[in-house]
Amino acid sequence: MSRGVRVRISGLGRTFSKGGVDIHVLRDVNVELSPGERVAIVGPSGSGKSTFLQILGTLDRPTRGAVLLDDRDVFRLSQRQLDGLRNREIGFVFQFHHLLPDQTAQGNVALPMIIQGVHPKQAFERAAAQLVRVGLGERLTHLPGELSGGEQQRVAIARALVLEPGLLLADEPTGNLDPRTAGSIFDLLLSLNREQGATMVVVTHSRELAARFPRVFQVQDGRLEELQ
């Protein structure tokens, strides 16, 4: 049975004010995702793809509208509840890895578990097992600066999935990699997600990678439209 969350977004809008002018980045976005669904989001630079993903991941708040994860209206939660939900139930993979430079690969992957109260010894054991899954069993004690870009992204994927989140969000996860490495990282991400069953939303500029998803949405003029 899928562990993925059900996502329901209704009337979502995000407006930024710049120099006294309102910029409507997202307008009346409505979408529903079933538990375990995998979708890609495409669109030109500056179209609002990343803003949408940040709102879905509760890193940004909408100007209007609602985001429901398994019937919880997330922006009606207290900040403490929201922080707990984000760390426990949402996994993030970004274009730039955001690894802690002074922590080993194992330490970076263990950190989300330690924040959740897992005993450090157990957290490091689980982190090691997760790094083996992403092909980095021999890189546990390496610092991020000692790893290639593709290896750093594998660490980031291991970190995002180690708590088995119900919602996995990836923002241009291969945008900083050469095509061959990008393909292998995408294969890994899809394979691991199929095993864990998270609902998965990936922002990508690559139509070729987006075509590998059952559903593809395009952000155009602030609206989210499903491509057939």
Could you walk me through the main structural features you see in this protein, from its secondary elements to its overall organization?
With 228 residues, the chain is of the alpha/beta class. The chain has a domain at 35-48 and 85-227: Rossmann fold (3-Layer(aba) Sandwich), CATH 3.40.50. The chain is 35% helix and 28% strand. The protein has seven helices and ten strands. It has helices at 49-56, 79-89, 105-115, 120-133, 149-161, 179-196, 207-210, and strands spanning 7-18, 21-33, 38-42, 64-69, 72-73, 90-94, 167-171, 199-203, 215-220, 223-227. The strands form two sheets. The chain has a six-stranded mixed β-sheet with strand order 6-7-8-3-9-10. A hairpin with a 2-residue loop joins strand 4 and strand 5. Helix 3 packs parallel to helix 5 (149-161). The radius of gyration is 17 Å and the shape is globular. The two termini are 28 Å apart.
Task: Output the keywords.
four-stranded antiparallel beta sheet, 7 helices, 228 residues, alpha/beta
